[in-house]
Specification:
alpha/beta; Glucose Oxidase, domain 1; Enzyme I, Chain A, domain 2; TIM Barrel; eight-stranded mixed sheet; eight-stranded parallel beta barrel; 22 helices; 47% helix; globular; binds phosphoenolpyruvate; binds magnesium ion
Length: 587
């Protein structure tokens, strides 16, 4: 839909929340100027002049960077400023600069061409590395290279803004982030990048709201458009409606007041006042989110949505590719555990070999697909097992409807283990295998399924939609999508009891786990683990640390006598207002 057709249509794009906060303002569409470099032959007589151009450019680049460095130090502290020190060091690297000068003389080529060629070699080596840190550093090297070339070509610094703006750009180098922040930057929205890109880290330090990984944002806005950034939910809202702006302003106020009080909670356990420990983990789709989750105080990953690997590709990744990703994630999370959920394709999610279905949510989804495609399932299971050598990896199956499916899926794990054993490949022989309870039929059979599982994790997003017969994405029936419906709560109660009867732990990884209104209920029901999106983690921990388990239990007893969802909401909300008045509730 173009803007001309519907001038006031609000468009919401979902990305990854990179730095918390809300920003509203007009767009500055920033397209990073990558200097064009052409090879040009020079004569031997030109060499001294060419080398002088290089040295001058280098000196100017260093001056620019030192300014950024000083500014970063003053604004961010010396730790965060080290990125720029590293860039200054590249400029001062006498071996590198010596090589460049020698090549200019030997090859009789212009300075910017040799700079680009020589520094690109380093960059490509770094990009070829499987280490995520090296990847990020490659972008720093790129930034230094462009800075020298721009100075050789005598171009001016481009990070200049007119008035307060929300920067929308494909990607952002750390130096851009800092330079922009001297102007009035309200927020950042980028097509690419993960939450650990330095730009994201710096945005957090600079307290500028940022959303990354928006994929097509730069194609959907132009400079001057009004947008809002929700750095908590990871949203870019184009042409926000007045009601949306109002809701965002209210949200911003609540969070600001609240965050000020939450800063010190990250290192503390998620434990009730009467010392009942809850495992508080995070839901993650990309490896890049782990660092932010850790900063938020996450104790591991309770749901890694492995189907995120399928974005933008026509096929399933092979065993090697998956094994590398899972090992990287497991290492980053260690010593805490990570639960890899096997591909949950179908429904509203991607599936490389999908076909049209009238009712995709009731169709070929999750474990159904994997059981029908043993080669895909086995590749993934072997890959996960290979990443389990440090014993902090778990496996979980999505969309299980029958006991039979749970048993069959588990048999595949045995087969994958046998195959690896035969090849002498190491893995955790006692790896824990869990089942998601998100289909009502499975909820009713929770006890029998629990007997075949090492843990249960409740997917409330789907469980609620299937219980209430409400499409989770359909606005017109949204009021019936009720997490606090007494039928849903009774079902949650039944699942926990069933799991505990079989002596296994039970958690919740649906969005309900991250709803502050649900925390007392879920703790009181006896959930052992809650897995939430990283931005809300401190808030949920704060509630857990402010209540007594025995009071939560009592509250649940009362809730279980109630028959109206509104009464349940009101009751839970009164508990929060009383026990943790600083929590910003949505209603
Ligand atoms: C759920 O259904 O609650 C869940 C966590 O899985 P997803 O949202 O990925 O379907
Ligand atoms: Mg689900």
């Amino acid at each position: 839909m173009t803007e001309a057709q519907h001038p006031h249509d609000e468009v919401i794009i979902k990305g990854v929340a990179a730095a918390p906060g809300i920003a509203t303002g007009s767009v500055y569409l920033y397209s990073k100027m990558i200097p064009e470099v052409f090879a040009r032959a020079i004569t031997p007589e030109d060499v001294p002049l060419e080398i002088e151009r290089l040295r001058n450019a280098n000196a100017r680049a260093e001056k620019e960077l030192r300014k950024v460095l000083a500014f970063a130090e003053q604004k961010l502290g010396s730790d965060s400023a080290t990125i720029f020190e590293a860039q200054v060091m590249i400029l001062g690297d006498t071996i590198l600069m010596g090589t460049i000068e020698r090549r200019i003389a030997d090859e009789l080529r212009n300075a910017e061409y040799i700079v680009s060629d020589e520094i690109s070699k380093y960059k490509h080596l770094m990009l070829a590395s499987t280490d995520e840190y090296m990847h990020e550093r490659a972008h720093d090297v790129d930034d230094v290279m462009n800075r020298i070339i721009r100075n050789i070509q005598d171009q001016k610094l481009y990070s200049r803004l007119e008035g307060a703006s929300v920067i929308v750009t494909e990607t952002l180098a750390p130096a851009d982030t800092v330079v922009f922040s001297r102007n009035q930057v309200l927020g950042y929205a980028t097509d690419l990048g993960g939450v650990t890109s330095h730009a994201a880290l710096l945005s957090r330090s600079l307290k500028i709201p940022a959303v990354v990984g928006l994929r097509q944002a730069t194609k959907m806005v132009k400079s001057g458009d009004t947008v809002a950034i929700d750095g908590y939910a990871g949203l870019l809202i184009i042409n926000p409606a007045p009601a949306t702006l109002e809701a965002l302003a209210a949200k911003a106020g609540r969070f600001r007041a609240f965050e000020e009080k939450l800063a010190d909670i990250a290192g503390l356990p998620a434990e009730t006042l009467d010392h009942i420990r809850i495992e508080l983990a995070s839901n993650i789709e990309y490896a890049e989110e782990i660092e932010f989750a850790k900063v938020q105080g996450s104790e591991g990953v309770g749901l890694f949505r492995t189907e995120s690997q399928l974005v933008g590709r026509p096929d399933y990744p092979g065993e090697e590719e998956q094994a590398a990703l899972y090992a990287q994630v497991a290492d980053a999370v260690f010593p805490h555990p990570v639960i890899f959920r096997t591909f949950d394709v179908g429904g509203d999610k991607l599936a490389p070999d999908t076909h049209h279905e009238e009712n995709p949510f009731l169709g070929w989804r999750g474990i159904r697909v994997l059981l029908d495609r043993p080669e895909i399932f086995m590749n993934q299971l072997r890959a996960i097992l290979r990443a389990s050598v440090r014993r902090n990896v778990r496996i979980m199956f999505p969309m299980v409807s029958t006991l039979e499916e749970a048993k069959r899926a588990r048999a595949f794990v045995h087969q994958a283990k046998d195959e690896l054993r035969a090849k002498g490949v190491q893995f955790d022989a006692r790896i824990k295998v869990g089942v998601m309870i998100e289909v009502p039929a499975a909820a009713f059979m929770a006890e029998q399924i629990a007997a075949e599982a090492d843990f249960l994790s409740i997917g409330t997003n789907d469980l609620i939609q299937y219980m209430m017969a409400v499409d989770r994405g359909n606005e017109s029936v949204a009021t019936l999508y009720q997490p606090f419906n007494p039928a849903v709560i009774r079902t949650l109660h039944h699942i926990v009891e069933a799991g505990h009867k079989k002596h296994i732990w039970v958690g919740v990884c649906g969005e309900m786990a991250g709803d502050p209104l649900a925390t007392v209920l879920l703790v009181g029901l006896g959930m052992d683990e809650l897995s939430v999106i990283p931005p809300v983690l401190p808030e949920i921990k704060k509630i857990i640390r402010s209540i007594k388990f025995k009071d939560a239990r009592r509250a649940v007893e009362k809730v279980l006598t109630m028959t109206r969802e509104k009464d349940i909401r009101d009751y839970l909300s009164s508990i929060i207002k009383n026990k943790v008045p600083e929590i910003p509730l949505e209603n």
